[in-house]
Design brief:
By secondary structure, the protein is α/β, with parallel strands linked by helices. It is built from 11 helices and 14 strands. α6 packs across α11. The relative contact order is 0.15.
Length: about 325
Amino acid sequence: MKSVVITGGAGYLGSVISDCFLKKGWKVKVIDLLFFDKKVPLRFLNNPNYDFMNTSFSDFVSIEKFIDRQDYVIHCASIVGEPASKKYPDLTFKINYRDTVEFINFLCHKEIKGFIFISTCSNYGISDDIANENSPLNPLSLYAETKVKVEEYLKNEVKDLKWVICRLSTLYGISPRMRFDLTVNEFTARAFFEKYIDVYLPNTYRPYLHVFDAARFIYGIIENFDSMSNEIFNIGFNGENYKKIEIIEIIRKFIPDLKIEIVRKGSDKRNYRVDFSKIQNFLKLKPIFRVEDGVKQIIKAFENKILEDYRDSVYYNTEMLFK
């Protein structure tokens, strides 16, 4: 049976990747400190192909046997996002860069077929042109800076491990470890409950990707790993670059009495569009979900009280780190 280890596998993206690989019949082993929602692994524990370890990926003594002789490792674990990295800069640098580099060196001595590094399109920061994988990087947050540093380490220093770098679009959609500090999810929640959204720099662009489709990309890369190894890929779909105001207008289709206020102060100055031709040339995937579908999913979850108080700290990467 094919096997994969997912660090951060109980997180927003990692839990969806876990579900994807389990449904494909893989053995899934998750390493996660459960900084946030501690109940996520319960969703999978009845599956005999799922194994979970509550520890850090940098605890090499504990994970030695757990990770040995596994086929692939997907490294999702990190302090994610500008707000969290700003609030916890020392921890962000430690986990996202220093511990990750040591983890990569650890894997170089294991019988691992390949390593997937989850990076971000936020590395482009501000770009006048549509960014491809060879475009200049301009990280505007410590989060993105650490991702760029690990990318550089993989490209320049790692010789004994095959790798793929995945620069993900901004994610949205339903996950077992739900987040409401992501643009589409946050805007939809505020629109549903408050009928009001204030937005900074409404005409700035970003690419968006449903978390389910993100997992499909990761699975596709691993299924085609030999032909895609030691490459960088922007992960997303052409046609899915949106201005913030365009996201809000999509939401307003479902919440027509939504009020919008443009504000002059804010911290997020990112503005970039991304080209995804390279990944499409390899995998030729089409989106299962678009932004409108993600908005409808979240609204339905609220209407059916599957999700309720979106302001609960469990949904935010800045609040639950040390619980």
